[in-house]
Here is the input.
Amino acid sequence: MSGRRTVSLAVTLPVALLIAGCGATPESSPPDDGSLSSPSPSSSSGDGAAATDLSVIGCARDDPADEGELTGVWAGNDNGVYYVRQVGGCVWWFGTEVRDIELGTAGQRGFANVASGRIVGTHVDLEWADVPLGDTVNGGGLTFTYDAANDQLTLVEQRGGRLPFGGTVLTRIQPDATSSSAPSATPTP
Here is the structure.
């Protein structure tokens, strides 16, 4: 019976923490000071390492049609391509170097990862993890700075992970890669 209680607690506690993190209401309107969004500092784990607020999951509810300044396609200096979406002060991405994706097949040659996080001034704080599309397994926390003049994100800090994150500089390759600029699904007469 003790083993069953341990398993139950091991499953219940992380789910409760995730739900608690989703309950926060992030601010989604950009500030007037030229930064990417309103400051929403990351929570601290007490050991000096920053941890991204899980309420980022709820950002899409704020304004699902919002496409912030970082939304677009970015090339990494790790041969990866990063598909970035910004909603208010929240960011998500899918990054991969897998070129010829074979649908339904895991462990293809190259990396594939997802990330989510928050923007604080010109810093983008993310938590990321590899997904099984690629053949690497790693994850951790990242902080990038945004250089609007050069349209680049530069890695300034990595937290955790077994190996260093490969993409230290991301440069936008499709600045108009938003759904509002995408070709229409229906032909116009």
